[in-house]
Amino acid sequence: MGTIEYRTPAKREVTIQSPDEDGCHPLxxxxxxxxxxxxxxxxLYANEDCVLTKAGKDQAGQTGGESFYLGTQMSVAYTPGQTxxxxxxxxxxxx
Length: 95
What we know:
By secondary structure, the chain is mainly beta. About 11% of the residues have low confidence.
């Protein structure tokens, strides 16, 4: 229930209505800013497969995989040098 809103690197605004709780979902165009207006927390990923990135290839340039946990009714903005988020999954959703 609710929406996920994101802005692409090209500054396009996208709204996802009542996202499915199961599986991995793409963020077409990539996301530099995400707002979670749903009743569920989500996890954002820097690849299209909802898996942690390989060591040394994460968004911060540090060793280890990376994802971003975004709570309900929260938002996160782009950090310079960060790659766009390309997918998300609902926390607690089926895989």
